[in-house]
Amino acid sequence: MSNPNPTSLHHRRTHNLLIQKILSKPDTSPFTLVLDSVEQGAGALVGLVVGVGVASKTHIIYVSQTSTNAPSGVDTHIISRRKTAEVLKKEILAAVPKGQKTLLILNPLPPSLLQTPNLPTYLLSLLSPTTSLFLIHHLDIPIPNHQQPYTPTPLLLLRYTATTILTLSSFPQTLAKYTARNLARPEPLFGLEEGKEGVIVGLGANSYAAKGGGREGGMVLEMEYRRKSGRVVEEVFFLPSLPSSLSGTTSPPPPPSSNLALERIKAITLLDENPSFAAPTVMDISNGEEIQSEDLGGTFKLGLTEKQRRDREGVVLPYYDAQRGFEEGGGRGDGGRILYEMGEEDDFDEEEDEI
């Protein structure tokens, strides 16, 4: 990531309002698809969405496979284990109140829905002008394709149908990959991608917790939002970690009765604006200042000391006098002629001087 253009950066800051509106007002995006993994789970993000939904008096229906992982504040909790797609659909539609804004959360996608002939049609039948869908899918869990070999996979259909796609990743792991790219090194692998026996979760996973150990915690959200016109808005955001006084060893969903959820959503910023993602620079040519030269990890120092900088400024270049006429406002120089004063060790040759 290079230093962004100030004009472009000012325009991109408006996307902060867009993602805040998506997470705080369900009707902004009828179908939001959240892609998480073991490296960065969506539990904290679901807690924020539930907390804001409770504050806005939105009816929340939470569908999961177990009865123990529902966040506090949901109005209806439906267990999808051992239920067919039609039975689950009847329970969901029966729990939707008439005339009230409703947020339907599927965490994760029930396995029974994967066997439906047309998954997008089934999911869209659960929506209404007052009902929005918030679907969480774990990328580390493979989706079996029971259809024909040349038909799209269920995940591809979900990506095509969703109006907003949020891909979550760990901030320390994203920072480590970014640093490796700047140093022209291979990007590090984490978790299952390492291919090591017994390694499931990598270092820096699920970093949305209190800051500790000198490391900054947080969550990276890659947003892909489709407007009604069909234009796609893509941006990468940073959700900072909870303050130390409000987070323990884990990051449970925030209490819906407080304004913590809304405050955390408003704290989302562009990833490029994070100080850790500033582009590393060895030397600023305009003023000769050394910037972050020690962070490049080389075997020798690329910067200049104060004495070397003074010696460089004291060197008179051979073409300096030839351009003095322009610098003083004379409007003319010596035609680019190089002025050279001979020293004692120089061997004067008349023939070369005539040339």
Q: Care to give the gist of this entry?
A:
With 355 residues, the chain is an alpha/beta fold.
Describe the protein in words.
This protein has 355 residues and is α/β, with parallel strands linked by helices. Helix content is 26%, strand content 17%. It is built from eleven helices and eleven strands. Strands 3-2-4-5-1-6-7-8-9 form a nine-stranded mixed beta sheet, with helices on both faces. A two-stranded antiparallel ribbon has the order 10-11. Strand 10 and strand 11 (289-290) form a beta hairpin. Helix 3 (43-55) packs across helix 8 (260-266). The two termini are 52 Å apart. Residues 245-257 and 281-295 have low confidence and may be disordered.
Task: Write the SSE topology.
Blueprint: H1 6-12, H2 14-24, E1 31-36, H3 43-55, E2 59-64, E3 76-79, H4 85-95, E4 102-106, H5 119-124, E5 131-138, H6 154-161, E6 164-170, H7 171-182, E7 218-226, E8 232-240, H8 260-266, E9 269-270, E10 283-284, E11 289-290, H9 306-313, H10 324-327, H11 350-354
Helix pairs in contact: 3-8
Q: What characterizes the major β-sheet?
A: 9 strands, mixed
Average pLDDT rating? 77
Into which percentage range does the β-strand content fall? 15-25%
Helix content: 25-40%
The sequence of SSEs as H and E is HHEHEEHEHEHEHEEHEEEHHH
How much is the radius of gyration in Å?
A: 30 Å
Q: Reading side by side through the largest sheet, how are the strands ordered?
A: 3-2-4-5-1-6-7-8-9
Overall shape: elongated
**Which structural category fits the helices and strands?**
alpha/beta
Number of helices: 11
**Regions with pLDDT < 50 over 5+ consecutive residues?**
245-257, 281-295
How many β strands by DSSP?
A: 11
Question: Termini, distance in Å?
Answer: 52 Å
